[in-house]
């Protein structure tokens, strides 16, 4: 079996950064499942489709013209790596992710990305639905205020306007939607290792997760 490490958790906890660092250390592939839903939301907006329509969203997901090359996300031949990282794209992703037909359409696509020598997959349901047999599952969490502050600094660093109270409200709204959806809600797998990054730096989080990697995969040289 191809080894898989899953990193789940709510928006803004640093799952993508952590997954990339772990994969780099191991020489494994990565799966940013959230990018798929963000691309889907962006594609829907550009086509004038409603993210709340499960039928049209499932049809679009089944034929989504997206590809991943290095650090680029390509939609319809255009690099949308930056476009899908906006707050609007994140909210659209949360809206399309509630539809069971959409998740079913993307499930096989995600599982096919598991290939040698291994995969680090981050998202909301990687350890509970997509890769339930993964030998190491991490659930990365942080307080809404801490996540909003990180996002605020990130946006300001890019020269973009940001309102901290609005970011906190958006994060709480998205958390509620992700945790209460009927299919694949945001929950920690029963065997997941819980890591609260509220008061931790990314270096500290990485060190903590690498401890678990060494425990589960003692044959790996880090």
TrEMBL record:
<keyword id="KW-0418">Kinase</keyword>
<dbReference type="GO" id="GO:0036430">
    <property type="term" value="F:CMP kinase activity"/>
</dbReference>
<keyword id="KW-0963">Cytoplasm</keyword>
<protein>
    <recommendedName>
        <fullName>Cytidylate kinase</fullName>
        <ecNumber>2.7.4.25</ecNumber>
    </recommendedName>
</protein>
<feature type="domain" description="Cytidylate kinase">
    <location>
        <begin position="5"/>
        <end position="214"/>
    </location>
</feature>
<dbReference type="GO" id="GO:0005829">
    <property type="term" value="C:cytosol"/>
</dbReference>
<dbReference type="InterPro" id="IPR003136">
    <property type="entry name" value="Cytidylate_kin"/>
</dbReference>
<keyword id="KW-0547">Nucleotide-binding</keyword>
<keyword id="KW-0067">ATP-binding</keyword>
<dbReference type="InterPro" id="IPR011994">
    <property type="entry name" value="Cytidylate_kinase_dom"/>
</dbReference>
<dbReference type="GO" id="GO:0006220">
    <property type="term" value="P:pyrimidine nucleotide metabolic process"/>
</dbReference>
<dbReference type="GO" id="GO:0036431">
    <property type="term" value="F:dCMP kinase activity"/>
</dbReference>
<dbReference type="GO" id="GO:0005524">
    <property type="term" value="F:ATP binding"/>
</dbReference>
<keyword id="KW-0808">Transferase</keyword>
<comment type="similarity">
    <text>Belongs to the cytidylate kinase family. Type 1 subfamily.</text>
</comment>
<feature type="binding site">
    <location>
        <begin position="9"/>
        <end position="17"/>
    </location>
    <ligand>
        <name>ATP</name>
    </ligand>
</feature>
<dbReference type="Pfam" id="PF02224">
    <property type="entry name" value="Cytidylate_kin"/>
</dbReference>
<dbReference type="InterPro" id="IPR027417">
    <property type="entry name" value="P-loop_NTPase"/>
</dbReference>
<dbReference type="GO" id="GO:0015949">
    <property type="term" value="P:nucleobase-containing small molecule interconversion"/>
</dbReference>
């Amino acid at each position: 079996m191809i080894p898989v490490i899953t990193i789940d958790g709510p928006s803004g906890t640093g799952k993508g950064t952590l997954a990339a660092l772990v994969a780099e250390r191991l020489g494994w592939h990565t799966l940013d499942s959230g990018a798929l839903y963000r691309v889907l939301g962006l594609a829907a907006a550009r086509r004038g489709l409603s993210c709340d329509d499960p039928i049209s969203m499932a049809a679009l997901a089944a034929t989504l013209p997206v590809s991943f090359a290095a650090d680029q996300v390509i939609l319809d031949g255009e690099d949308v790596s930056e476009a899908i990282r906006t707050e609007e794209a994140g909210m659209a992703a949360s809206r399309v992710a509630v539809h069971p037909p959409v998740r079913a359409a993307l499930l096989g696509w995600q599982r096919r990305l598991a290939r040698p020598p291994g995969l680090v997959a981050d998202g909301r349901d990687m350890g509970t639905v997509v890769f339930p047999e993964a030998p190491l599952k991490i659930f990365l969490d942080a307080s809404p205020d801490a996540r909003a502050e990180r996002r605020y600094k990130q946006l300001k660093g890019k020269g973009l306007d940001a309102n901290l109270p609005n970011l906190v409200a958006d994060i709480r709204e998205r958390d509620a939607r992700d945790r209460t959806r009927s299919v694949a809600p945001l929950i920690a797998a029963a065997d997941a290792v819980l890591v609260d990054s509220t008061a931790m730096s990314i270096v500290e989080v990485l060190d903590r997760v690498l401890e678990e990697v060494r425990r589960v995969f003692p044959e790996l040289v880090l």
